[in-house]
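Q: What changes when nicotinamide-adenine-dinucleotide is included in the input?
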Amino acid sequence: MTNAKTLAVYGNYVNGTWKNSTETLPVFDKFTGEEIAKVAIATREEVTEAIDNAYETFQTSKLSPAQRSEILLKVVEIVRKRKEELALTITQETGKVIKEARGEIDRGIQTLIASAEEAKRISGQGIPLSQHEDADKLAFTIRVPVGVIGAITPFNFPFNLVVHKIGPAIAAGNTVVLKPAEKTPITACKLVEIFTEAGLPNGFINVINGWGHTTGQYLLEDERIAMYTFTGSPTVGRLIKNSTGIRKVTLELGNNSPNIVHKDVADLDRAVELCVSRGFFNAGQACISVQRIYVHKHIYDVFVEKAVQFAKSLKVGDPKDPASDVGPVISEKDAVRVEAWLNEARENGAQVFGGEREGAIIRPAVVTNVTKDMKVVCEEVFAPVISILSYEDIEEAFKRANDTKYGLQAGVFTSNLDIAMQASYKLHFGGVIINNVSTYRADVMPYGGVKDSGIGKEGPHAAIQEMTDEKIIVINL
Ligand code: NAD
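A: The predicted holo structure follows.
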């Protein structure tokens, strides 16, 4: 990194050194619009150089499980010391309100600690061979690192989602070439410097910056990458799957999360507060954000009234203000898209409370009288917009919740154990959260979707399973 006055310039991080690229792209403060840094646009040659180094490092350099674990814990120590500075970087480059940026760092710390713990627990299994001719054989499996991992990350959680990739990858003994989102790359650049400071030898994590369709695409084309771990949109996820042949891929993609609030909900106020606050958390830009809320008709009117009140009480504005609840979405272009989707809903009979746009800010919107083919319902809205729909019968609610191309997580509020168990089996999602919202995620849990929401699981333990190969060993005694 070099400093031109106060503007940081991050190149590509290869073998522990920032290397400048001939071209750069600007990174903006998403609230003020001010340019805050520049990052490289890595060329094909620069991507190859980063992979050469990660590949060479994997072949020649090994860290013991204890060393990996200690490095990850040292990263935690440094992150804790630099928490405020990192949180501010997140707020600037994403527009996320500062209290949520601090929360993201806290979650990332837990992800790092879990990765450090898992580094020491990677093991295979004993395999009982049971045929007569196998009596003289002993069989077991070992788990070995896959090699070089290509990690590609999205804009919305530039700390914790990067940690979810590089934490388990390093814990498992791999090397990594990381391509952070071009809209929010600075937090990731700071984080890899912290890994080096924590004692990770050079070459274990290299970073290439730049656009997805050029720099990202070059990363996909190099056969020495053994596995890709991607979080982002279904469109790019599909492209990655199609470009990488028989190499391993995990894809963590989008959702238009359904949440069902049944008439027997134990605490309606709590359900409203959770649904609404988690619909507007991170300005609605979370893959498991509450988007579609199916409310039983007996409690529908009171739910809507409380939801609108709650939405009105949120403070919208400058994300650096500690009192702000909702900041801008990632760009004015996205805000304009959301405004158009809200207009489409309105023109087709929906009622929209809030939703006014000012630049990149969308005021929290509660939408009623929607139909299933309106974009705010059937597509991933990725903005502070929730739709509330009424239902009569719980089976109908399950069917309507499932009527989507996505399948990441769903939430169900009920005090009936039978309904809770039916929901667990009948909702076709990677996770079903009972008496909490779809947005609930503990970073240690196995996390991932079905259908267009992706393949493979994250969460340090699950990710390490993905990032290692299980090898069978048979010993003829
Ligand atoms: P995106 O797909 O536009 O970009 C994600 C990353 O892919 C970026 O780094 C981008 O540069 C890169 N990329 C783009 N084109 C590429 C290409 N041709 N080859 C290689 N890389 C390429 O996603 P986004 O807008 O940054 O993030 C929003 C999306 O991410 C939403 O759909 C959201 O639901 C999803 N998401 C999912 C999860 C999850 O865990 N399931 C978590 C967060 C976000």
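Observations recorded in class: The two ends are 57 Å apart (CA to CA).
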